[in-house]
Amino acid sequence: MSVFASCGGFARVSTAVREAKKQAMMHGREFMFVHAGDCFQGTLFFSLYKGTANATLLNAIGIDAMALGNHELDMGNQVVADFMDLANFPLLAGNWDLSNENKDKANPLSLKPNVMAYDSEHEHAKYLVKDVDGEPVAVFGLAIENMAGIANPDPDTHFLNVTAVAQNTVAAIKRAGINKIVVLSHLGYERDLELASQVDGVGAIIGGHTHTMQGDFSNIGFSVGDEYAVQINGTYVVQAGCNALALGQLELDFNADGTVARAAGRNQLLLGRQFTVDASRSEHLDDSTHQVVKDYLSAQGNVCFCVKDPQIENVLNQDYRPAVRELQTQQVAVLTESLRHIRVPDHKGPSQIAPLVVDSFVWSSRQRGHAVDFGIHNAGGVRASLHAGPITAADISGRLLPFAIGLMVYEVSGKQLRAALEGAINNAIDNGVEGTGSGSFPYTSRLKYTYRCCAAEGQRIEVLKLYRNGVWEDIQDHANYLSVSSGYTATGKEGYGALVNSNIDPIPLNITMADAFEEYARDRGSFGAFEQTMIDFIPCGCEQEHVA
């Protein structure tokens, strides 16, 4: 029998943090609550409030420091700067070089005392120092060095090599007479482990980005991950999943020489006290079954029943939830069938929802007078499958397309297009390159292609056709076409560099991806998947098998 329960959220996190802090004080221990980045994007709260709600709630919980995640920079530096004006905690981004930032910006980051970036004068990260029983402990932050490849930092600020900055910063901290050091990172779990092996003298790395949930959660039907606090080269590496579902609690004891004497702790899922037999949480368990479930979960060390903090709930209910709930009740259209989303096509075929999303980009562009020929969108920009039945504005901007990124129309030659499609897929499947993840896989509207993995580099796109005037015609390498994509893809992120035209800048449409799809869905009223697929993906090792 499957049982569903509500889990996580800022109100439960706040309660769990207060309890952890209370326990630390009772045992005579110091306490810090840190956030490993990516608090922006992914929910209606960011879509509506652009970081204001995040800053208000994190302030109320009492965060001590936050790392810079890539999603903080999806809309450039300005939103981060506005967020930091509201935040009463520091942002640790020790390899972010702001020294050449344009000071004429409306709100420059380099002047903010709570942004602890790269110290270009002394060539190391700025760092916090916390007094622990009279002993100083230094904390600095690191962000993904390829930030420009997966997000949208302003071009006048860039990210430096993680290993070099970490080594220089540890050396500088030790010169200052401090030998107890913690890194707050947004690098990803494997990169955290690698960094631990490369840099001596760090007690712990508290990380994010890959949403890694350390610990064995098979007792409640989830996966088994690495043990909590993996030790590499004397450094303990931890992560606590994603989406505010769990709280990681790391206990560190240092020796006098700065090495770690003891590292312990665990991740705990933060559960509510209501159980149902359905995901919509409408059919509750009978009393006896409820008690059996409650007793079982109460005995598990990796879950915690957690009431919501009334202060946080009050802020949410008064200031933010009304607008969110309004979107949740606005029916936009009806899906005649469930639509599956997958990034890289598998034996069941490609995504069914992503082509509709791209088609909405084309439709919305044409509604605004742009005679675009086709559209392209990276698979990672679509975040959910959708069930058959009514869809609401909240489903679109909160689940399907939660990244508030605008659309851009741009000119591209056939040769550029061919190179961009191959580059994006090479990046997505690590075919001859060290990619940034499967999210770059391209979906299209009015454009179909065949990609053969085992073909020679530069020749993997074998078929490339445009649907125009009711027929499919070959894309000509030397002809120019008009395309539409998200600003993320149009500016060459994650393998799409060939789309960038140095002579003609893209034209912003001043409409987000979610806005475009909502307009499109309202116009259609009801719809299902396209009958024809645009992608013929032939993976390596399957030369005779087309995945389409």
TrEMBL record:
GO terms for biological process: nucleotide catabolic process. This is 5`-nucleotidase. InterPro entries: 5'-Nucleotdase_C, 5'-Nucleotdase_C_sf, 5_nucleotidase/apyrase, Calcineurin-like_PHP, Metallo-depent_PP-like. SUPFAM superfamilies: 5'-nucleotidase (syn. UDP-sugar hydrolase), C-terminal domain, Metallo-dependent phosphatases. GO terms for cellular component: outer membrane-bounded periplasmic space. Residues 8-212 form the Calcineurin-like phosphoesterase domain. PANTHER family: 5'-NUCLEOTIDASE (PTHR11575:SF24), 5'-NUCLEOTIDASE-RELATED (PTHR11575). It comes from the Bacteria. Keywords: Hydrolase, Nucleotide-binding, Signal. Belongs to the 5'-nucleotidase family. One of its GO terms (molecular function) is UDP-sugar diphosphatase activity. Pfam families: 5_nucleotid_C (PF02872), Metallophos (PF00149). Residues 345-499 form the 5'-Nucleotidase C-terminal domain.
